Amino acid sequence: MNIFRLTGDLSHLAAIIILLLKIWKTRSCAGISGKSQILFALVFTTRYLDLFSSFISLYNTVMKVIYIMCAYATVYLIYGKFKATYDGNHDTFRVEFLLIPVVLLAVLINHAFAPMEILWTFSIYLESVAILPQLFMISKTGEAETITTHYLFFLGLYRTLYLFNWIWRFYFEGFFDLIAVVAGLVQTILYCDFFYLYITKVLKGKKLSLPA
Amino acid sequence: SAELGHHDEL
User: Which segment of the chain is annotated as a signal peptide (chain A) (predicted)?
Assistant: First the structure.
């Protein structure tokens, strides 16, 4: 464990909690892409199946359980409890255009052609593009609630910090995972436009609205 | 490369 990975995980946890609280407190999921949240629940489900097969550490197990529970609670709030506030007309990204390439890539490019490994690879590739329905929805509505931008900031920051974690681990532990690094780079690059708007607008007290 | 069998990152 290193400082980049720890702050990365905490940033990820913060994002997940911010979103859950936003929906719960405002009793509304306006501006939130349910499709992205379903994809994140799928990412955690396929990646954390090893919860039952291998024990890494208490921290690892506890965080995985929290992530999975929050992900499904968020999906439930969007499509169940507060579905009247779900903006389906703007949440129209064709997720099959993500899932099919990701499945193919996971089957073709992986560390080992074994079920658990292919599921892990699928979850890594899927996570790198899972935010696209949410970013697409914001581009369609032309704006985002400030709390939603904070959610996106911490979510984008988490994988950016993981990039530094991988540099650290390569240098100090000789650990290197090309699949995770390439997917992590793609994931972080997808946030660049948002990061620019967040820093130049939201941090200056303005509302995030598009076109910039 | 990553240790096979288990990935220790979240």
Answer: none
